[in-house]
User: What shape does this take?
Amino acid sequence: MKAVKLFTLLFSIMAPALAWANIDGARILELHHQKIQLNASESFFKLPFNIHSNEIDNRLSADVYSLIKRPFDNVATALTDPGSWCEFMPLNLNIKSCTSQQQSGKTLLAFYAGRKYYQAPEAAFQLNYDYQVATLENNYLKVVLDAEQGPFGTSDYRIIVEAIPLEGATYVRIHSSYLTSFRSRLGTQAYLATLGQSKVGFSLESNTAAGTPKYIKGIRGIIERNVMRYYLSLRAFLDTAHLSSGERFEARIKTWFDLTENYATQLHELERDEYLQAKRQEWNNQRRLQRNLPRPKL
Assistant: This one.
């Protein structure tokens, strides 16, 4: 038992550095799962995922880890298709539309980020991501999305999804990060002092007592909520992949809303009918945007 605890301590110190170095990513994810399982057996607060966030030198980041009960091949097929990203990412109520295209040998994904209620893409901010399948092996997948600029002076956006086959299912890590700016921090402070005052994230404050969960607040709560929306978007996409093409969209938006309501304390924003109606309109907008993209030159 002492050896296990020593291993856990060493891994908790080494894992972040190893993950960014991309040294044996599959093994890192497997060790992380073992660590989470060990801690979960001793924890009063059990969830089907593990989430944590950081704010270091103006970089805000969050990671969510979860065992998704879908075969690795199915998850890899979805994540290595840029078109699939434009089907599941807009389930997030803050993503108004998505387009994908090939340009100068690169795959580009545009996410139109906006408010929680319905917005036309023209009224949202267009985040332009370079999409890359960094690693695809039979036991490890890594997809990286990078965007230079975001709204309100934010920059250096990064989304990373890693996955490994595990226990007949797929263990997934979803990472989201960006650099804040003076302007964005001012806006966030104003939001947290008013509309966002009661909002919470998923990780627990360090002074949480057993049986009394005390969730983190502030800017880390914001990015934790957002990375969870990404995770649940992927879940909803995978959970409805077996349906016919004519059934999938309606099933996905309903599934995403129902999944988020499991964590209503953190994620409830709109009533069901308002969310569904907004997403139907935004889906029509997205198809228009995709149709109007210039055709790639052969």
